[in-house]
Specification:
Helix content: 25-40%
Shape: globular
Order of helices and strands: EHHEEHEHHEHEHHHEHEHEHHHEEEHEH
Radius of gyration: 21 Å
Oligomer: single chain
Distance between the termini: 24 Å
Structural class: alpha/beta
Largest sheet: 7 strands, parallel
Number of helices: 16
Length: 435
Amino acid sequence: MEQSVVKPANGKLGILIVGNGAVATTFMTGVLMTRKGLTKPVGAMTQYDKVRVGKGDAKKYLKYSEIVPLAKLDDIVFGCWDVYPQNAYQSAVYAEVLKREDIDPVRDELEQIVPMKAAFDKNYAKRLDGDNVKDCKTRWEMVEALREDIRSFREEKQCDRVVVLWAASTEIYVPVDEQVHYTLAALEEAMKADDRAHIAPSMCYAYAALVEGCPFVMGAPNTTVDIPAMWELAEKTQMPIAGKDFKTGQTLVKSGFAPIIGTRCLGLEGWFSTNILGNRDGLVLDEPANFHTKEVSKLSTLETILKADEQPDLYSDYYHKVRINYYPPRNDNKESWDNIDIRGWMGYPMQIKINFLCRDSILAAPVCLDLCLLIDLAARAGRWGTQRFLSFFLKSPMHNYTVGEEAVNHLYRQHTMLKNAIREMGGYEADEEID
């Protein structure tokens, strides 16, 4: 075992969340309740998962915090931005994800989390109507205002480190444009020229975070940091980035179940996925331009697991469809259906049906915690740029598409990448192969 070179997690870790809706308030409430001993952080890998280190007689299974220095829940301080001015307590009650008895014990702390004005452009999320919005003339003004917010938060809360997490709505789809998104100079020029077509508000948050020395996590399928210009900025600032889109319900199932079909060498005819969802996320995704961003993210999973070029007999021509339907009565209790048509011996057809009645924010909250703690760890370990080891938590993991790199979407390979990174940062050998 080599000596770990990770800096200790001393002092306070600020977590600044873009968005103060169902996901953000469920995350914050759960952390605050856990540290009071009133609930358990179920679903959080950083709190429960164990990694084998060493082999033979030296073999041990340890929690992440026993291998690497993770920030403690007691050291977390929350802040947020949102287009609606309600504090985190009001927003948590309004979201109707958690029961009042699971919110009220931390009411005082939640009421102190008051959202800063959001950098917002209604063209990117037409269904949102909040008025807690910055009056910025240009995208560059947005960047400057957000940088000031980060500095003020860090100073006021006396944070040693800050992570910025996007847990807001899905923006309309922004195709990658080589003229604007491929170099940092071009990106900055577009921001200063107020190029609203190519510069989404989320890009302003990411830019501000990185320049202020904060790791940035993209929890929606937005293009944001998934562009060469942002990779260049992450390298320049030596900051880690991760994205995109929290992997919570249906795609988690897909990335875990598709390997069963592939490993067993069964053929695939088609995979139809549909969802009903009634929260603010569902409302925003009811807009076709916003849904398209999500669709691209969700569709990418299967094609990198069941590959036609590797098994043309089995996967050369399957049909893959993804749908999300806004259905208000269900609120945050999302329901997903998957219909999978497969072929077995001699081409005989079979079917698999999966019906997942999940709770969107209940699944997303521990993912938020894990991503924040692990990207803070990466920063202290001197890792910058895209953190591929965090792919486990993301629907559409970032990768360098400019050189033909393919994302790893296979859940068990992603878990191996995660464990190997923990081992390496803890001074152990990364000793599992990704076949």
